[in-house]
C-alpha cells in the first residue's frame, strides 16, 4: 500500500487518469485501486459504489468551471449588470471551449458520464443559474437592468445562450464565425435586459 | 409495373414509407422499387444514387416546415415586427414538436438522415434564416424594431432560440415548464429588438 494517506481527492485524481486511459465503458474501481497501489476495498471505504465514484469525479470536473465563474460573479472589478453578465457568459463559453478543445478524449469521457447522471448535471446548472441570478439582481439594483424576476430571467438567459455552453454544441465551438455569433446573441440579450 | 405514372413525388412517398418500416440503416432502393411495383432501374432513372434519393426525401420532409412558416412570414393577418416574429417562432417550435412527438420513429429516421447530409440542412437553415430576416426587415421598416442588419440579427435570433427548434433538444420539448421557458426567451429577444 502507498505510504501517502488515501484521501478522496487522491482517489478522484486517479479516477480521472484511469478514465482518460481506459474510457468510461472499461474503467473499473479495481483499475483505480491498482493505479493508487491500494486494495479496491480501500477505495470503496471512501466511495461506496462505482456509481458514487463516477458522480464524485464528474462533480469535481464541473466544479472547476463553477469556481472559475464564481470569481467573475463576485468580482468587484467588473461593473454591475451588462459588463458583468457579458464577462460571465464569455468566461463560461471560454471554459467549455477549452475543456472540449484542449483534451477532447477527457471531454468525451465526461460527456458520457454526464449522460448517466442527471442529478450531478442538475446541480451544476442550478449553481450556474444561481450565479446568473445574482448578477441580474445586482444589475437591477444598480439600475442597469430592467426590474425582473432574477431566477426566471437567469433561466431565459441561460437557455438563449445554450449554443455556447451546452456540450451538445461542442462540434460548432471551433467553427468560423462562432465568436461573431456569440457577440450577436449576447448583444441581443443585453439589449433585452435594458431598463 | 404499376399503371400509375412513376413521378418523383410517388417515389419519395414510397421512400418515406420504406424508411419508416425498415429504418434508415436497412432501407434500400430495391425496397422502394418493390413497394412501388417497379424495377429499381426505374427508381434510379429519377434519382441517380441512393444518397440522392435520401437527400430528396429529407429535403421534402424539411420543406413541409418551410412552407408552413412561409405562410406566417407572408401573412398580413399578423402585425409586423414583434407579433409576426413571435408567431413565427411559436409555429416553428410547434411544427418541430409535432414532428418529434406525433411520429417519433420517423423523426428519429430523419434525424439520422440529416446527420449524413449537411448540405440539405444548411439549405433548410438558410431558408428559415431568410424568412426571419424578412420579418426583421419588415419590423424595422414599420418602426417596430430597432434598425439592425436583418441577416445578422436573424442568425442571432435563430441561435438564441436553438433550444426550441434544434432536434438535439427534442427530449426536453415535452418537459414541464418548456412553454414558460419558450415565452421567457422570446420575451427577452423581442425586448432586445425594441427600437
From TrEMBL, chains A, B:
PROSITE patterns: HTH_TETR_1, HTH_TETR_2. The keyword Transcription regulation applies. Transmembrane segments: none annotated. Gene3D superfamilies: Tetracycline Repressor, domain 2 (1.10.357.10). InterPro entries: DNA-bd_HTH_TetR-type_CS, Homeodomain-like_sf, HTH-type_TetR-like_transc_reg, HTH_TetR, Tet_transcr_reg_TetR-rel_C_sf, TetR_C_27. Keywords: DNA-binding, Transcription, Transcription regulation. It comes from the Bacteria. Residues 5-65 form the HTH tetR-type domain. Residues 28-47 bind DNA. This is TetR family transcriptional regulator. The lineage of its organism: Bacteria, Bacillati, Actinomycetota, Actinomycetes, Kitasatosporales.
Amino acid at each position: 500500500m502507498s505510504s501517502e494517506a488515501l484521501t478522496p481527492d487522491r482517489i478522484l485524481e486517479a479516477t480521472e487518469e484511469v478514465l482518460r486511459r481506459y474510457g468510461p465503458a472499461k474503467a473499473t474501481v479495481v483499475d483505480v485501486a491498482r493505479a493508487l497501489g491500494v486494495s479496491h476495498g480501500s477505495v470503496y471505504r471512501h466511495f461506496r459504489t462505482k456509481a458514487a465514484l463516477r458522480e464524485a469525479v464528474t462533480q469535481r470536473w464541473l466544479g472547476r468551471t463553477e469556481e472559475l465563474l464564481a470569481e467573475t460573479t463576485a468580482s468587484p472589478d467588473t461593473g454591475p449588470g451588462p459588463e458583468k453578465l457579458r464577462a460571465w457568459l464569455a468566461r463560461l463559453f471560454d471554459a467549455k471551449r477549452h475543456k472540449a478543445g484542449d483534451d477532447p478524449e477527457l471531454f468525451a469521457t465526461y460527456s458520457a458520464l454526464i449522460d448517466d447522471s442527471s442529478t450531478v448535471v442538475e446541480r451544476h446548472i442550478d449553481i450556474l443559474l444561481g450565479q446568473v441570478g445574482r448578477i441580474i439582481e445586482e444589475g437591477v439594483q444598480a439600475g442597469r437592468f430592467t426590474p425582473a424576476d432574477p431566477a426566471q430571467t437567469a433561466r431565459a438567459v441561460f437557455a438563449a445562450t445554450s449554443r455556447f455552453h451546452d456540450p451538445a454544441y461542442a462540434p460548432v465551438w471551433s467553427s468560423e464565425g462562432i465568436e461573431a455569433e456569440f457577440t450577436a446573441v449576447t448583444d441581443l440579450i443585453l439589449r433585452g435586459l435594458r431598463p
